[in-house]
Amino acid sequence: QVQLVESGGGLVQAGGSLRLSCVASGRTSSSYALGWFRQAKGKEREFVAGIRRRGGSPYYADSVKGRFTISTDNAKNTVYLQMNSLKPEDTAVYYCTGGIGTPGDHWGQGTQVTVSS
Q1: What number is the average pLDDT over the span 57-85?
Q2: What whole-number distance in Å separates Cα of residue 28 and Cα of residue 77?
């Protein structure tokens, strides 16, 4: 069983930056994909970014392209989400997720990101 644990959320002013981390424990293959979703209060969970552990290009939601960067450190079994130029509308609980080929099989507990205006 794969477990995902996020960290790095917090409160930041608009225009600021945060980096989220997610450590994956358990057996994951080279085709295991990782990603980030978010859920704002009163809204549905939405996709943010995704990447395969080995190979493949990262992909992003249009709303975060050019501002967020997803990356992995395979030696540490960790996926990161670097968030720059944050906006109040980025406020949400951010969830790390992983799965074979595409994220969605396993989920972390979530980490709160709050962007003040």
Answers
A1: 94
A2: 9
